[in-house]
Amino acid sequence: MFDQDHIAEAIAWRHDLHRHPELGFEEHRTSEMIAALLTGWGWRVHRGLAGTGVVAQMGQGAPVIGLRADIDALPIVEATGAAHASTIPGKMHACGHDGHAAMLLLAARQIAAEGVEQGTVTLIFQPAEESEGGARVMIEQGLFTQFPVDKVFGIHNWPGLAPGRFVARDDKMMAAFSVFDIEILGKGGHGAMPEQSDGVIAAAGRTAAALQEIPARALSPLEPGVVSVTQIHSGSAYNVCPDRAVLRGTCRWFGPEAGDIIEERVRRVATAEATAQGCTANIDYQRRYPATINSAPEAALARDVAAEMGLDTAMTGPSMASEDFAFMLNEVPGAYLWLGAAREGENPGLHSAKFDFNDAVLPAGAELWVRLARRATRG
Ligand SMILES: [Zn+2]
Ligand SMILES: [Zn+2]
């Protein structure tokens, strides 16, 4: 579908973005580059939603299709050794959002060259997908009231699937998530005289074990759920029982009822285990993203388009990872799509310090966007 030199240019944009990663809501350079390219191709460009968001439109009237790419990087020290490695210490594109931006740009160039005869194509370059909820902020600031769309799609490169694979599930795609901080407080004392202090360490250990049992015992075996304790901080000496411990972690689920059960149990378990050891627990539990649930007709449309391209659309998943595209799917029918992007040999996963977007799948991702835009705007 694309000229070879256009593909080469898109890969060069991807490498340029990779060299200059920007964290959530700070994607100023990235946003500038995207807006400049789109303006040059004749798109009507709007900037400023969620600060660094870029929305661009071409065509007019109904139907209106929204195509979304996320653009933020992660606070990770890059270890790829690539020629285009990050030039900014402690920041890197370890989730492939550099590739997502370049894919949508390559598609945008092609769509502009072909012209939009009917309906409207709306491109959404979204900041801060990683934990900050840039999609939610764009929506709160009027994304879908200023730019109403009939359907919205998002694509993520998926290193767990081989190139040529493509997944658009009819319903559950990715899980909802929360984060928690549990502070356990009690009396500290001499390590040799445990009877003189409260069991802060015992409470922390028991809490960690009991929390991770919640999905197994509080949810139906047919209902997916995860509680992972990912941090425990306490103590500073061999012979001192500490007076404070902090546990942190994340929970994942799909159904709203499961989300309520998990939250209630986390609070109950932490409080009970602390109390049993003579301690108190301060619990800060925050729900972050809802579950990413596709609508079946839009998922079917995406599979149809992928099948036209010869991609294998066999179903797999869902994933217990989370995605803030969920906020867009709460507003508008649409689908979140995984594009197979595994590398031969060593294939580091998303968020690995060695992860680098697989440029070989960039043209397929862009072609998918162009074909989806054509199909969805022609009704
Ligand atoms: Zn990510
Ligand atoms: Zn990502």
UniProtKB/TrEMBL annotation:
<feature type="binding site">
    <location>
        <position position="97"/>
    </location>
    <ligand>
        <name>Mn(2+)</name>
    </ligand>
</feature>
<keyword id="KW-0479">Metal-binding</keyword>
<dbReference type="GO" id="GO:0050118">
    <property type="term" value="F:N-acetyldiaminopimelate deacetylase activity"/>
</dbReference>
<dbReference type="InterPro" id="IPR011650">
    <property type="entry name" value="Peptidase_M20_dimer"/>
</dbReference>
<dbReference type="InterPro" id="IPR017439">
    <property type="entry name" value="Amidohydrolase"/>
</dbReference>
<dbReference type="Pfam" id="PF07687">
    <property type="entry name" value="M20_dimer"/>
</dbReference>
<keyword id="KW-0378">Hydrolase</keyword>
<dbReference type="Pfam" id="PF01546">
    <property type="entry name" value="Peptidase_M20"/>
</dbReference>
<dbReference type="InterPro" id="IPR002933">
    <property type="entry name" value="Peptidase_M20"/>
</dbReference>
<dbReference type="GO" id="GO:0019877">
    <property type="term" value="P:diaminopimelate biosynthetic process"/>
</dbReference>
<feature type="binding site">
    <location>
        <position position="95"/>
    </location>
    <ligand>
        <name>Mn(2+)</name>
    </ligand>
</feature>
<keyword id="KW-0464">Manganese</keyword>
<feature type="domain" description="Peptidase M20 dimerisation">
    <location>
        <begin position="180"/>
        <end position="273"/>
    </location>
</feature>
<dbReference type="GO" id="GO:0046872">
    <property type="term" value="F:metal ion binding"/>
</dbReference>
<feature type="binding site">
    <location>
        <position position="351"/>
    </location>
    <ligand>
        <name>Mn(2+)</name>
    </ligand>
</feature>
<protein>
    <submittedName>
        <fullName>Hippurate hydrolase</fullName>
    </submittedName>
</protein>
<feature type="binding site">
    <location>
        <position position="130"/>
    </location>
    <ligand>
        <name>Mn(2+)</name>
    </ligand>
</feature>
<feature type="binding site">
    <location>
        <position position="156"/>
    </location>
    <ligand>
        <name>Mn(2+)</name>
    </ligand>
</feature>
<dbReference type="InterPro" id="IPR036264">
    <property type="entry name" value="Bact_exopeptidase_dim_dom"/>
</dbReference>
